Amino acid sequence: MAGKKVIAICQLGGIFKTLCDGSLSYDGGEAHAIDIDEDSKYNDFYMEVAEMFSCIHSSISIKYFLPGNRKTLITISNDKDLQRMIKFHESSSSIDVYIMMEEVVAPDVSNMPASRSSRTTLSEAGILADATPCVLDDDMDEISPRVLLDSTFDVPDDLANVDEHIINVNEHMAMASEIPLSISLPLTGSSEEKQMKAAQQWQNNITGVGQRFNSVNDFRDALRKYSIAHQFAFKYKKNDSHRVTVRCKAEGCPWRIHASRLSTTQLICIKKMNPTHTCEGSIVTTGHQATRSWVAGVIKEKLKVSPNYKPKDIVTDIKEQYGVQLNYFQAWRGKEIAKEQLQGSYKEAYGQLPYFCDQIMETNPGSLATFTTKDDSSFHRLFVSFHASLYGFQQGCRPLLFLGSVPLKSKYQGTLLAATAPDGDDDVFPVAFAVVDAVSDDNWRWFLQQLKAALTTCHGLTIVADRELGLKESISDVFQDNSVYHAYCLRLLSEQLIRDLKGQFSHEVKRLIVDDFYAAAYAPRPEGFQKCIESIKSISLEAYNWVIESEPMYWANAFFPGARYNHMTSNFGEMFYSWASEAHELPITQMVDTIRGKIMELINHRRAASNHWLTRLTPFREERLDKESIKVCALQVFNSGPAGNKFEVRGDSIEVVDINNYDCSCKGWQLTGLPCCHAIAVISCLGRDPYDYCARYFTSESYRLTYSESVHRIPGEDMPLQKDISQAIVTVTPPPTRRPPGRPPTKKLGMMEANKRQLQCSRCKCTGHNKSTCKEFI
């Protein structure tokens, strides 16, 4: 395109708008056209644009879009940038160029105390007024000057003609390098501007002799902030509880300060101070003066808004805002202190447990909150169940509980044990939870004992839980009643089945075994169960024997004596476990109170929502009943008993319905608590209402009973309750278990091995190895 001219349509004063696809459009403003070609120089173009729009030369930047990409603006800052823009648009006759105004901010040094940042000589001021900021080309062989005009310094009148006063950069590079680095150049980047604004509030923390501070710590804090604001490092010559003497860390610099306690008071007063600096400081202020408490004070407010504020982001932000270079561990330690200041001490939280448990039971009568300690008074376990949860479970929920646990990644680790129940709409309803030092038989037994004590009756209760960890023995020992049933978690059983298989099975074969295993568990009748396990037997005799020996009476619908309402796994309370995961880094009392708040919000929200329901059943159960009712039209009903209570229903199969005993031979009525299609057909023939044959737990009335009670707020330390002064003082210390060093694992545990891909040899087609290790053809 040599010799070809392109028209640069320069636009200023409009605004950019973001469209739906993320691209930018430019509206408004004024435009002028300039002819440019490959021989055009950036400085000439820059000056012409500035004069055309009557702008201060140093206050504009020039940008453009790449062809076909209106999402990213490209900045022109030297000759090569200008040539690239022309080359990118060689097939066009014109180029849209956007002129952006940059705000020029000048530091106010009029009231600044004598320090290194105020040691600007007249000659240096002249350099700042006249020096030209330089932009280096990619090859670092060409410098493009811009004239810097700033209102902070006096500008000669004869600078009206800017072209005559462009300073030769090479002659002044050495002079510019001598300017003290603490002085902010008027056109520095955004990070330096932020640094100036953030630290400016501390520039007058130290005013001179006679200034007083409430304590020696307050003086140290003020001195530290003062040094950061003025960009110098210091070191202590004397530093104790009643006097502090400090000098500038730079060798030979006369800056000194001495403060000591005023007699008969705790006040600290500056007695001597030499405010003069002769040092030039350092380019980057290190974090030597940035103590953990200082970092904590700086980030505390942001940490309150953003709890996931990462140490690496803290390092970046403090460098940009204050010019202090921290390392990762300084930032991490500062964050830990800030968290403790915001959330309270982990250690103190354990010590507050006796009072905290009393508060729970006093503010929520009928609740149970108790804890135990070890012989050395260290924390062992804590159990909490609110009255609203206990009442709601016993009045409105099915007698069905799910036990589960989730590890806590707090400072002292631990595990949260939980008991949850399904409400009438099959949503999670929290009943009780505990914080223990570890998952063990003893801790599960203790949890079940507290749960039994909290419940008024356990008759007909079904507990869905893992068969491992001693739960089978604990449930039978604690609930010594034949009417309490233990149901195994089907998900955990299937995972154990896959782990125990010794043979080499492909991923597909394992998936088929698991599918048949689930089908056997859901089968309502023994013949269906037998058919499914015979299918497993045809694949693997080993898997078949494992299923037979796994006690099907604890997990198969065809043999289970209790009522589990087709809930086959114990991970029903995932929502509750997520609450604990969100609050696991809090001290124990705050974690429990956060969970309490979540339960309170849940109850209030669902109570309000259910008040608008107009149906007799909950929405989910109403939908299920409607689906069963649709199937009735294809069924025929015959009276098969002289008493008129048994009926034969014919359709795809022949089923017998005993209307008085709420029984159908398909077992759907018994397993779900809702009439199956066969039962609805009989009920309709008798002219009765199917709603009268639904389990009471599914009615809107029972649902409202579940959420009728409220969880009340627990007063904080600023609102103490009256306590019995005769109560013995119990000391609780943190558990000895500490979180191990390093990043906690993020990989989910408990994933099914059936989902893992196995190696398969491309030669012999066998699994467990690849062709490089295959021995078949050796």
Automatic annotation (TrEMBL):
Per UniProt, residues of the SWIM-type domain are: 655-687
Arranged from A to Z, the UniProt key words for this protein are: Metal-binding, Zinc, Zinc-finger
* InterPro entries found in the cross-reference section: MULE_transposase_dom, PB1_dom, Transposase_MuDR, Znf_PMZ, Znf_SWIM
List the SMART domains. Answer: PB1, ZnF_PMZ
Please give the Pfam families that the UniProt record associates with this protein. Answer: DBD_Tnp_Mut, MULE, PB1, SWIM
| Name under which the protein is recorded | SWIM-type domain-containing protein
Source species of the chain:
Deinandra increscens subsp. villosa
The leader peptide range reads: none
Taxonomic superkingdom: Eukaryota
> Which GO MF terms does the UniProt record name?
zinc ion binding
SUPFAM superfamilies the UniProt entry points to: CAD & PB1 domains (SSF54277)
